[in-house]
Amino acid sequence: MPAETHVQQGPIERPEVLQLVKDRLADILEIDPSTIDEGDSFAEDLHADSLALIELVEALEDELGERSVGFRIEDEDLEDLKTVRDAVDYVLARL
C-alpha cells in the first residue's frame, strides 16, 4: 500500500500503547488484561516464555504497522524488553 494512502490516525498516546500491550499479552497468555501491571516482568510476574514474547511482538507489529508504516521491533532489541513498561517505552520511542 503506498504511504500516501496510508490512514493516519494521529499520534498514539502512552495509555493507548499500554492498553494495546496489555490486551495483546492477555490474549496470548489467556489472562485478564486488568491483572497486568506496567511494572510486571514478562518472565517473573507473567510467566511469559520467549514464544509468548515473539507472539506479542508480531501482534504489536501487525497492529501498529497499520498506523506507522514499517513499524518493527528488532530481534536484537527483544532481550532488552523485560517488563511491560519496557515494551511500552520501546513502542513509543519507535513510533
Shape: globular
- Beta fraction: under 5%
Characterize the biggest β-sheet.
none
The tally of beta strands, per DSSP, is 0
Distance between the termini: 19 Å
Computed structural class: mainly alpha
> How many separate helices?
3
- Percent helix range: 40-55%
**SSE order:** HHH
Poorly predicted segments: 1-7
Query: Roughly what is the average pLDDT, rounded to an integer?
Result: 89
Taking all Cα atoms into account, the compactness measure Rg is 13 Å
Task: List the SSEs and their pairings.
Elements: H1 14-29, H2 50-65, H3 84-94
Q: Explain this structure to me?
A:
There is one protein chain. This protein is mostly helical. It is 45% helix and 0% strand. It contains 3 helices and no strands. Helix 1 crosses helix 2 and helix 1 crosses helix 3.
Summarize the structure.
The chain is an all-alpha fold and 95 residues long. Helix content is 45%, strand content 0%.
